[in-house]
UniProtKB/TrEMBL annotation:
<keyword id="KW-0067">ATP-binding</keyword>
<keyword id="KW-0436">Ligase</keyword>
<keyword id="KW-0566">Pantothenate biosynthesis</keyword>
<keyword id="KW-0547">Nucleotide-binding</keyword>
<dbReference type="InterPro" id="IPR042176">
    <property type="entry name" value="Pantoate_ligase_C"/>
</dbReference>
<dbReference type="InterPro" id="IPR003721">
    <property type="entry name" value="Pantoate_ligase"/>
</dbReference>
<comment type="similarity">
    <text>Belongs to the pantothenate synthetase family.</text>
</comment>
<dbReference type="GO" id="GO:0005524">
    <property type="term" value="F:ATP binding"/>
</dbReference>
<dbReference type="GO" id="GO:0015940">
    <property type="term" value="P:pantothenate biosynthetic process"/>
</dbReference>
<dbReference type="Pfam" id="PF02569">
    <property type="entry name" value="Pantoate_ligase"/>
</dbReference>
<dbReference type="InterPro" id="IPR014729">
    <property type="entry name" value="Rossmann-like_a/b/a_fold"/>
</dbReference>
<protein>
    <recommendedName>
        <fullName>Pantoate--beta-alanine ligase</fullName>
        <ecNumber>6.3.2.1</ecNumber>
    </recommendedName>
</protein>
<dbReference type="GO" id="GO:0004592">
    <property type="term" value="F:pantoate-beta-alanine ligase activity"/>
</dbReference>
<comment type="pathway">
    <text>Cofactor biosynthesis; (R)-pantothenate biosynthesis; (R)-pantothenate from (R)-pantoate and beta-alanine: step 1/1.</text>
</comment>
Amino acid sequence: MNRLRPFMRTMSTSALPSSPIPLFTTVAEFRLWREAARRDNKSVGFVPTMGALHDGHMCLVRKSLAENDLTVMSIFVNPAQFAPHEDLATYPRTLPRDLEILTAESLSVSGDSKIRKASAVFLPSVREMYPSGIDQNVAAQKGTFLEVKGYGEQMEGKSRPTFFRGVATVVTKLFNAVEPNNAYFGQKDIQQCLILKRLCRDLLLSHPDPAHLHIVPTARDPTDNLALSSRNAYLSVEGRKIAPTLYEALKAAEHAWNDGQPKELCVVRATDVVRDVATLAKESDLEVRLDYIEFNDSDSLEALDGARCLEADSRPVILSGALWIGTTRLIDNIVLGDMAKLQ
Ligand SMILES: Nc1ncnc2c1ncn2[C@@H]1O[C@H](COP(=O)(O)OP(=O)(O)OP(=O)(O)O)[C@@H](O)[C@H]1O
Ligand SMILES: CC(C)(CO)[C@@H](O)C(=O)[O-]
Ligand code: BAL
């Protein structure tokens, strides 16, 4: 690891918090680190994030630490994936705390006397990621953007039509900068995972190749199963109490599915759960509204056409949903079938 030694210091940008993990704010600086890792024959695992870290992010980090010599996290709030009316300005930005959380994470690897910790944090600037500037209005954008056509319009894409274009674009840039052997994404954002796997296949990427883009199960609050999410921080005390309703609705749909009910009835079971909670919440002036509950094929991402047979050897089905609690939008999903078969 000697060649990596020169990087074992905090970059000298004064606005950055001090950190025992080396921080890189430009692609050129990061590439020197990456080149040294390559020369040292070290595998690199990559965890892309938008910061505001919670234990869901740390599950990705732990898996990367376990499976790679070196782990890199990026923290970048990507303007291109926020529509003009969305929460780019208020998205939580908590870099000093994020670095403390990441620094505290370590893993002792069996057969290896060393303890592994994150090796680098990549903090690119908006200017370098979008050299022609970035307008959240797609029609006004200049420069190079990526679309994974036919897969980003359903589920989340119905409510956020430009979201996956922004994600595909930024993640491709991040992959080009980091050149990871393995990359880790959370099941909470299942459509994002499946679209990015397809992007890797379609663009013949080798860093990572699609098989090395890993989907890590959703981390939940152990007390009530709420999926951990940076946006949970927006919830009021009352909203936080109601937030597990989305998962409860998905579980009701899953039970109906497992009982052999047709898809439409499963969706009704889920909407019943939300309706009852929404009625109660209204009494405290809190608006709770279901955005969608959908069953989608995990390969085409098309909504299921009514045929519901899940053969032992067939592809998994994605049961997913989004719920508004006041002005906060939460998402969650359950994979029906074998997660290992997701491609
Ligand atoms: N509960 C979770 N379990 C596992 N992975 C998660 C969880 N929450 C987020 N991730 C993953 O962490 C990565 C970075 O996500 P991001 O920084 O957007 O956090 P987030 O909590 O998903 O934020 P948001 O509230 O904006 O959806 C993504 O791959 C995402 O799927
Ligand atoms: C993958 C990602 C970091 C791209 O900005 C973001 O969409 C996220 O955090 O899920
Ligand atoms: N984890 C998803 C990021 C977003 O909603 O913008």
